[in-house]
């Protein structure tokens, strides 16, 4: 079984801009292709795991979210990197669209998307890393038995302050995805 790096989307791979429905609203952080190339070279499976309650809230359609993700993968592929899989959660218990207005084991901080990916892709969660900018990312990673990294992009700087008072301590805190991945790759005892 190989290790994975699970990536949050908004605030981690792309600028945090609230609920976005189209690729035209996406601003990919410039360091992402290089960061993902390092991961691929080290043999990691790369998996996007993202909450998109915009669907439950009636802001975006399922098709819009899928199209946005396909465009994002295309842009990365054109820069020589591929993401192995995308898992996204459209649900939110207080949504407006009845079909999606439910609690879900897939919605971070629950670890459902990570468990699903591990089953589908035969991943070793204990040697894997979840990277994100929110408490919910770290909680999902920890609940799945993964290592965790907080990035200071997106909501990350605020999350870092809030974490100081709590019990959840990420394995890494880095300025951005590239730094998080570089430092993770240096910690070979955690994943090699
Ligand atoms: Mg985020």
What does this molecule look like?
This protein is α/β, with parallel strands linked by helices and 192 residues long. The protein contains seven helices and six strands, in the order βαβαβαβαβαβαα. The longest helix is centred in the middle third of the chain and has 17 residues. Bound molecules: magnesium ion. Magnesium ion binds next to loops.
Major beta sheet, specifics?
Answer: 6 strands, parallel
- How many beta-strand segments? 6
Would you identify the CATH architecture? 3-Layer(aba) Sandwich
Number of domains: 1
- Under CATH at level 1, the class stands as Alpha Beta
Question: Any idea of the CATH topology?
Answer: Rossmann fold
- Which percent range fits the helix content? 25-40%
Q: Determine the structural class based on helices, strands and strand pairing.
A: alpha/beta
Strand residues, percent: 5-15%
Cα Rg: 16 Å
> Order of strands across the widest beta sheet?
3-2-1-4-5-6
Tell me the span between the first and last alpha carbons.
Answer: 12 Å
CATH superfamily: HAD superfamily/HAD-like
Q: Topology as H/E string?
A: EHEHEHEHEHEHH
Shape: globular
Average pLDDT, all residues: 97
**Bound molecule kinds, no repeats:** magnesium ion
Low-confidence stretches: none
Q: Number of DSSP helices?
A: 7
């Amino acid at each position: 079984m190989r290790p994975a790096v699970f990536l949050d989307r908004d605030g981690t791979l792309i600028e945090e801009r609230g609920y976005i429905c189209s690729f035209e609203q996406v601003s990919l952080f410039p360091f992402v292709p290089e960061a993902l190339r390092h991961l691929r070279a080290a043999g990691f499976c790369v998996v996007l795991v993202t909450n998109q309650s915009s669907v439950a809230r009636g802001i975006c359609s399922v098709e819009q979210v899928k199209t946005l993700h396909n465009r994002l993968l295309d842009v990365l592929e054109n820069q020589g990197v591929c993401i192995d899989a995308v898992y996204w959660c459209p649900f939110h218990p207080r949504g407006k669209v009845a079909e999606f207005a439910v609690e879900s084991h897939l919605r971070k901080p629950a670890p459902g998307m990570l468990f699903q990916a591990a089953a589908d892709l035969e991943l070793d969660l204990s040697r894997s890393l979840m990277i994100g900018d929110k408490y919910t990312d770290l909680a999902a990673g920890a609940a799945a038995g993964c290592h965790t990294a907080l990035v200071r992009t997106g909501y990350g700087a605020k999350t870092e302050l809030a974490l100081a008072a709590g019990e959840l301590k990420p394995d890494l805190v880095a300025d951005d995805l590239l730094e998080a991945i570089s430092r993770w790759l240096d910690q070979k005892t955690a994943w090699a």
